[in-house]
Amino acid sequence: MKKNNHPVEGPDGLVYTARLPLSSATLNWLAGLIRGHLKKIRSRWRALPPGRIAALVLAVLRCDQRPGDLAGGNGIHRTTVTRWVREVVGLLAARAWTAPSKRSPARVAGRCCWTAR
């Protein structure tokens, strides 16, 4: 089977860097969430470490980067980046669903509502 890992933009492979306006704490938190998920599903390896996966996923979600452009610059396939985005969105959704915080919308709405006396 032939691997087809050529750059998306053409043979010369135009790659550019982007600066994400994110804190390192956000990136480290998401990388830890990914690390925990990989440990839970007993994944032996990924093409990139969890910190780089977190940066790629945040670039797709925050800056609306095309997965194909990011994949070509990092030597992985476009479908791999798309799969990682879906996995991380699922992890974040599961965390939001199971761990309500003090600032959850239901609590904020409950504090702001008038009660009839």
What does this structure look like?
Helix 1 crosses helix 2 (50-63) and helix 2 (50-63) crosses helix 4 (78-98). By secondary structure, the chain is mainly alpha-helical. The chain starts with 23 loop residues before the first helix and ends in a 5-residue tail after the last helix. The longest helix has 21 residues, at 78-98. The protein has one domain (24-112). It has helices at 24-40, 50-63, 67-74, 78-98, 105-112. Helix content is 58%, strand content 0%. The chain contains five helices and no strands. It is globular. Residues 112-117 have low confidence and may be disordered. Keywords: Membrane, Transmembrane, Transmembrane helix. The chain crosses the membrane at residues 20-38. It comes from Streptomyces vulcanius.
Indicate the mean pLDDT: 77
Question: How many domains is the backbone divided into?
Answer: 1
How many DSSP-defined strands?
A: 0
As residue ranges, the low-confidence spans are 112-117
* Sheet of most strands: none
Q: Which percent band covers the strand fraction? A: under 5%
As a percent range, the share of helical residues equals 55-70%
CA-based shape:
globular
N to C succession of SSEs: HHHHH
- Helix and strand content put the structural class at mainly alpha
- The rounded Rg comes to 19 Å
Helix count, per DSSP? 5
Distance between the termini: 74 Å
Short description:
Keywords: Membrane, Transmembrane, Transmembrane helix. Helix content is 58%, strand content 0%.
Reconstruct the topology from this structure.
Layout: H1 24-40, H2 50-63, H3 67-74, H4 78-98, H5 105-112
